Amino acid sequence: MLNTQCAKQKTMANQNNQENLFQKVVAHAKEYGFVFPSSDIYGGLQAVYDYGSNGAELKNNIKKYWWAAMVQMHENIVGLDSSIFMDSKTWKASGHVDAFNDPLIDNKDSKKRYRADVLIEDHMAKYEAKIEKEVAKGKKRFGDDFDTEQFLATNPNVLRNKAKIEEIETRFKKALEAEDLADIKQIILDNNIVCPISGTANWTDVRQFNLMFSTEMGSLADDSNRIYLRPETAQGIFVNFLNVLKTSRMKVPFGIAQIGKAFRNEIVARQFIFRMKEFEQMEMQFFVKPGTEMKWYNYWKDARMKWHHAIANDNEDYRYHDHLKCAHYANAAVDIEFKFPFGIKELEGIHSRTDYDLGAHQDLSGKKLQYFDTEENKNLVPYVVETSVGLDRMFLSVLTAAYTEETVKDGDKEKQRTYLKIHPALAPTKAAIFPLTKKDGLPDKAREVMKELKYDFNVSYEEKDAIGKRYTRQDLIGTPYCITVDHQTLEDNTVTVRERDTMDQFRMPIAELHSFLDKKASLRHLLKELEA
Ligand SMILES: Nc1ncnc2c1ncn2[C@@H]1O[C@H](COP(=O)(O)OP(=O)(O)OP(=O)(O)O)[C@@H](O)[C@H]1O
């Protein structure tokens, strides 16, 4: 009994730590110019955010990394920049007008609204956490002799929790497939899932809510002029399939990539930039011969995980999660999930979308959306494998993984240090250049060093305060290198380079700085590593 109590306290302490960490990251993002609430002076607009000077740099670097890895590195992928407004028939054909819904449920006591599917998935995650805890206990007890597979297959506590997950999963899948909203509510009641605020199970019925924003185009506010803000960028790619096929000299299999804004009227929008009403997506649709889609689905599943790992601090933060129920357009779907401080959540989706979209647009527009297959000697509607990652969610994963607090030695004492361990190729500023003092011609020399580097790297200059304070400021925004120009520089043209993560310092000739930064902090080098 005492043990259980103790374990419970530890889990709660861990949860509290994670919540604290998340609050710190949100505060840090605002304080150091990464993310601001939109319309901040009016109190902020719910689930809409602006990116500050450092945030805009980081966001752009993530975009560049994605675009280069997709378009530049693949001979058979081309880019596109389609508009946000599209003919409303697009959304009828794609199924968004009829089926882009979330099942919502309200707690009558707290008056808070939740996505019913998220409540159930979070509940199942609790059983998964219990299994993980059993495994950790087993490992601790048996050390090197511990056989995880056998333990998972035989331990009674693990089997009990597994059975519970399976039971809920099967019933939930059935209810989703049948769109049985009453049973979704019943699952919540039967499992005693309570509102995290009120702690009660006093729920309303579950109802569907369409997530698209609409407005009118033109002077008449009637239904014929209704237009939607796109809820995904993918449809802009589908409706341009023929245009790109004709103009780009691409042959199936080939892909079209696009980065752009998408809009969803997310009712349960919490967790900062994880779920926003206005956000950006980086999507790629890969058009393949029907029947080959699973080969490409597996190829992209693997390639996208590698892309994440190449900039990760810890590969263990990522995992695959197969979908319980595929969306109406897909025959296979997997998420790449990331360990956010508030739980393991979807970061990217990889979907085998069949010929659903092109087929539906073909039917409604009357235009043939096909390619000529030379093997079959006939026209075919290609199948599509999609990779879709939220830019803002990606930003949040980078920021939360990067936020580091540690205790370091300061002479005889110890002090707390906070820094952002962002991959150098994504860091907003690659290097900060400091003259040791404002005298003796050091600022001029430091400006000379800036000039050597600024055409290829985003570098900054600082001369205010003691060097230690300047290091701290750069640590807080994730600058991987600080370069100090001192009196010795005037004699031998060397500078002191200080590394963010190790705090190591070493001297380097000015003439070598460019190739040093290129190797350590350039997108070029990151892409080479990705391909190796
Ligand atoms: N409201 C949002 N705010 C920020 N990013 C989003 C939002 N909705 C989706 N994304 C991002 O776009 C990607 C692809 O969109 P997709 O339609 O597959 O998401 P989804 O499955 O609806 O996401 P979720 O289940 O979290 O609502 C997601 O993996 C996510 O990174």
UniProtKB/TrEMBL annotation:
Residues involved in substrate binding: R115, E232, F279, E280, Q281, M282, E283, E386, T387, S388, V389, G390
One annotated GO biological process: glycyl-tRNA aminoacylation
Gene3D superfamilies assigned: 3.30.40.230, Anticodon-binding domain, Bira Bifunctional Protein, Domain 2
Swiss-Prot/TrEMBL catalytic activity: tRNA(Gly) + glycine + ATP = glycyl-tRNA(Gly) + AMP + diphosphate
Pfam families the UniProt entry points to: HGTP_anticodon, tRNA-synt_2b
Aminoacyl-transfer RNA synthetases class-II family profile domain segment(s): 166-428
InterPro entries: aa-tRNA-synt_IIb, aa-tRNA-synth_II, aa-tRNA-synth_II/BPL/LPL, Anticodon-bd, Anticodon-bd_dom_sf, Gly-tRNA_synthase/POLG2, Gly_tRNA_ligase_bac, GlyRS-like_core
Group of enzyme by EC: ligase
UniProt keywords, alphabetically: Aminoacyl-tRNA synthetase, ATP-binding, Cytoplasm, Ligase, Nucleotide-binding, Protein biosynthesis
Amino acids binding ATP: 264-266, 274-279, 346-347, 390-393
Subcellular location: Cytoplasm
Molecular functions (GO terms): ATP binding; bis(5'-nucleosyl)-tetraphosphatase (asymmetrical) activity; glycine-tRNA ligase activity
Primary localization: cytoplasm
Family: Belongs to the class-II aminoacyl-tRNA synthetase family.
Protein name: Glycine--tRNA ligase
Encoding gene (name): glyQS
